[in-house]
Amino acid sequence: MQTLRPLMGIRRKQQIDAALASYDPSLSRQKLDEDQVREIKQLIAQGNFTQREIAARFQVERTHISRIKHGKSWPHIK
């Protein structure tokens, strides 16, 4: 990336810097158990919380909540 950075425009550099600043490696390493996934599915079904709020509550990325919601992750849990 250091060799490509001088070739990038200002806006692209700002986007990359913002993404790196907001990255939290601890979020990507959290593991959910079956009970937590059941609770997540219940919260989704109730509709009182956004995916972002649920993700913050369980300390995972929002995309993981979306994958659970759409049955791409943990499809065997009802």
What does this protein look like?
- With 78 residues, the protein is mainly alpha-helical.
- It has a single domain, classed as Arc Repressor Mutant, subunit A, CATH 1.10.10.
- 59% of the residues lie in helices and 0% in strands.
Give the helices and strands, then pairings:
Layout: H1 10-22, H2 25-28, H3 34-46, H4 51-58, H5 62-69
Helix pairs in contact: 4-5
Main features:
78 residues, Arc Repressor Mutant, subunit A, elongated, 5 helices, single chain, mainly alpha
Distance between the termini: 43 Å
How large is the share of residues in beta strands? under 5%
Radius of gyration over all CA atoms, rounded? 17 Å
Q: Residue ranges: pLDDT <50 for 5 or more in a row?
A: none
User: CATH top level?
Assistant: Mainly Alpha
Number of strands: 0
Q: Number of folding domains?
A: 1
Discrete helix count: 5
Major sheet description: none
CATH architecture designation: Orthogonal Bundle
* Structural classification: mainly alpha
- The secondary-structure element order is HHHHH
Q: What general outline do the C-alpha atoms trace?
A: elongated
User: What is the oligomeric state here?
Assistant: single chain
At CATH level 3, the topology is Arc Repressor Mutant, subunit A
The average pLDDT value, as a whole number, equals 88
Portion of residues within helices: 55-70%
